[in-house]
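Human: Not sure, check this?
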Amino acid sequence: MAALCVAAAGLFVTRPAKLPDGALDGLSADPANGEQVFYAAGCISCHAAPGTTGPAKLTLAGGQAFPSDFGTFIAPNISPDPDHGIGGWTLSEFASALRYGSSPDGQHYYPAFPYTAYAHMTDQDIADLWAFWQGLPPSDVPSQPHQVGFPFNIRASLGGWKMLFMSKDWVVADIPSPEVERGRYLVEALGHCGECHTPRNALGGLDTANWLGGAPNPSGSGKIPSLAALDWAASDIAYYLETGFTPDFDSAGGHMAPVVQNFARLPAADRDAVAAYIKALQ
């Protein structure tokens, strides 16, 4: 009986957190800024249907597969379709998903969805992103289930995972300038660069002591490089984020190619800010 009480208490403490309904309703949303947030956050990179190109990528029908040590996660349909996407959500439910990794029906999302980074998003950027989202094309393609076996398919356990690995603190606390602060927001929050460039522990949490220090490729092939040890000039980093071309006359490939496509749509000042942040790590 005591064990059941302890288990029930644990589930209560680690239950999915949510914003109250209407918590962000007082904000005046700017969909133009929301478009910039959309590309900086890389939404299109994961949720566009496989094989789509051009404007068709804006139909966020999902379907891309992301392998990991815990199973294969399939990106869901997050288009504005009210039945198969998220068109029936409220702004508060959208914010709860981004900030807490919680679904409208009270479940934990898997951290393949980088809410540990999006948790740092500002209220205004969330509201602006939601306003832009309303103009995206809907898709009636059903989301596919994740291919995750026991015990990782027990979503209730993710509450404990969040307690261990979600933090309101920035990884890099000492920021020397407003430009680097903007770069931190783009790298640690919107761009969620640490999700790929930082190694993970046995439970899948980011090893922030080795922040952006490089990591094994989840596909099992090769390694994702260290940004903390990157010896490029800041101008080279900014140019790479715009064009995909490296100082060594190579070009971006794999999952980095769509990241470059996204950052190329941002103002030059944002690419410069990311470069300044990366150089500040060194």
